[in-house]
Design goal:
The protein is mainly beta. The chain is built from 4 helices and 31 strands. Strands 1-10-9-8-31 form a 5-stranded antiparallel β-sheet, with no helix packed on it.
């Protein structure tokens, strides 16, 4: 058992360290499937916007996939228009919130979007805003409106306007078998960053979300690259002897943690991105890998088998000390922290079971298995900490799933062009 665990850990270290072609055209789209929705959630009516057929349905879909609301724009029990919510009718129908809007085209081809969110119970507008956006950003404007509505009703910033990076594997196209893509969190507007016949793994966003690091074998040995998303320009950051993998950027963007085996054993190293100077952070006979900075930049977590099985540890940068964070189960790895630093998402294998995504409260150390699926991997928190995206399998499909931390909502993002793996939610 110990030997199998070490082999699995070493394979993780190697895989998180995997002749590409740089491209920018759109690629295969992910398809949104609602796998689980709350039986009861507050209703919100999205009254079709005037002069619009594309924007309000996106808002409706966003709010439904939040798991917090049940929204509808069809078969509404009452009517409303801008500045005329008709509160009594909605009150009688048991709908507490109503969204209305109108879209106008400007002389330069942009769109003016005026929308209102009305609280039926309080009989007051919670939002009454005007957006001006270019025609190319209408979809983004819809996500921004969804973000604003979500925050107005929950007090938590919305993440509908965010992006997810992932790797698509398509055996049917050998020359472009692996594709690194980014897309909206509903799977729309996919954009290809890189294609390769060799594996592309461990995408990691810079804190400003303007660049992505990844690992490629294009030089016949694993190397870490970082690529500018606006220009396509890229730079090789690490190509040392042996393993180079699992990049993670510090919150200030000045340093990068990664796994390397330049001294034979996989260890954690820190690179100063301005000077390229290296600092060895771990020095143990165990396999140390999958380092991730804490949001405050004062520590990092990592996976190690130094205790006899794969577990997650925290390294304090101030005093170079470490402590073990996970104790439940036979295997704990691929840890990532929520933006507030209070929760740990990880791949967890209970004794006698398959791999699941679990959430551990770092104050209480209480660990709860989140996912109903199996063979789960690569969890990544949404910026607001309300959702986790992860890779999983359903039958023969390799796909992404997004699940709320309360377990009440789950949606799938499969692709018809192959398996979807290695998700990473972009920071805001």
């Amino acid at each position: 058992m110990m030997e199998m665990t070490r082999k699995h850990l070493l394979s993780l270290a190697i895989l998180t360290a995997f002749s590409p072609v740089l491209v920018t055209q759109a690629h295969a789209q992910l398809h949104l499937e609602i796998a689980k929705a709350p039986e009861e959630a507050p209703k919100i009516a999205i009254v079709p916007f005037s002069n619009d057929s594309s924007l309000y349905p996106i808002i409706e879909t966003d709010l439904n996939r939040s798991g917090k609301f049940t929204s509808a724009s069809k078969n509404l029990p009452a009517t409303a228009s801008m500045n005329n919510p008709k509160a009594a009718n909605w009150q009688a129908a048991g709908v507490p919130y109503v969204v209305t809007g109108t879209v106008k085209t400007t002389e330069n081809g942009s769109y003016e979007v005026h929308y209102q969110l009305y609280d039926v119970q309080k009989q007051q507008y919670l939002l009454n805003e005007l957006l001006t956006v270019p025609a190319s950003r209408v979809r983004s404007a819809a996500h921004m409106i969804s973000d604003a509505i979500y925050q107005a009703l929950t007090g938590i910033p919305g993440d509908f306007s965010g992006r997810i990076a992932y790797v698509l594997r398509n055996p049917a196209t050998p020359e472009q078998r692996y594709t690194l893509q980014i897309a909206d969190t509903d799977g729309e507007q996919p954009r290809t960053i890189l294609t390769s016949r060799d594996p592309i793994l461990s995408p990691a966003w810079t804190p400003d979300a303007k660049k992505i690091a990844y690992v490629s074998f294009e030089t016949k040995r694993p190397a870490i690259y970082v690529q500018d998303l606006s220009t396509g320009a890229r730079e090789k950051l690490a190509s040392f002897r042996g393993l180079n993998g699992a990049p993670s950027f510090s919150p200030d963007g000045k340093s990068m943690l990664f796994t390397a085996s330049m001294h034979d054993n996989p260890e954690i190293y820190q690179m100063n991105l301005e000077t390229r100077q290296l600092q060895r952070m771990t020095n143990d006979s165990a396999i140390d890998t999958e380092a991730r900075y804490a949001p405050d930049g004062k520590s990092f977590i990592f996976t190690s088998d130094r205790g006899g099985s794969a577990q997650i540890y925290r390294y304090d940068l101030a005093n170079s000390s470490y402590n073990r964070l996970t104790f439940r189960g036979a295997f704990n790895a691929r840890g990532t922290l929520s933006a507030d630093g209070k929760k740990l998402a990880l791949v967890h294998r209970p004794s006698g079971s398959n791999y699941k995504v679990a959430i551990q409260d770092l104050n209480s150390s209480v660990t709860n298995i989140l996912t109903p699926t199996s063979l789960d991997e690569s969890p990544s928190f949404s910026p607001n900490g309300q959702m986790v995206v992860y890779a999983t399998r359903e039958g023969s499909r390799g796909l992404l799933s997004i699940m709320s931390l309360d377990g009440r909502f789950r949606m799938n993002l499969p692709s018809e062009q192959g398996e979807v793996r290695e998700p990473a939610w972009a920071p805001k």
